[in-house]
Amino acid sequence: MTDPLSPLEILINKAEAALHEPGSAVDAPTIDALLQEILSTMQSSTDARKLLGPLIGPLRAAIASATSSPIHWIPVDQGHLAIGHRPKIKTIQQMIKLGTTHVCTLLSESEGALDIGDEARRNGLVWVWLPLQSGNPPLQERKPEIVKTFLDMRQALNDRARIFIHCSAGIHRTGMITYAFLRYLQFASSDAIELLRQLRKETSDGVGDDRKHWGEQFGCPLNM
Q1: What SS3 class is residue 102?
Q2: Alpha carbon distance 59, 65 (integer Å)
Q3: pTM of this prediction?
Q4: Considering the chain, what is the average pLDDT of its residues?
Q5: What CATH superfamily is the domain 74-223?
Q6: 102 in the Ramachandran plot: left (φ > 0), alpha (ψ -120 to 50) or beta?
């Protein structure tokens, strides 16, 4: 039978667990409360200062990351969705630290989609590519391809995936496809609109009624 952990050991374990969680799982207020507890404990003894001191810098960095993160996760089904503009290649690893498991790219090949895909897969992410040349609604002949993409993403959400959907600016194509996907998931139109607003207000404001109207076709249960 092992000896119980000391209060200092418990605090160290809590700090290390917080630092190894995705940024979306441990929020800034939680990490800040832990940091304040550590600072208070460090005043009690030299040993506490030696053991806890090295944790202060990483915890402060984690607070900054959680506060300034461009990824805003919203629970959807059993997983999470986030939307935004095109990620920079050098930020892919940071996206993983923030909990991303899947990246859905709506850019065309000429816009550098393959570069994003290569970097995503190199870092262990699942890359979903639905190339759209512009923010205009896709031709009807592409509907089977889009439904297949939605099916794959729905299954990923059921497996607790965190999917980041993006185009270039994260407005027209991103809003159109995200709204259509939410309708495919059988969210009511009003709920899909509200969820899109929660995901990213800039996208919700700029997507346009014509693109949302195009997405309505995926709300039919026959598309499932």
Answers
A1: strand
A2: 10
A3: 0.70
A4: 87
A5: Protein tyrosine phosphatase superfamily (3.90.190.10)
A6: beta
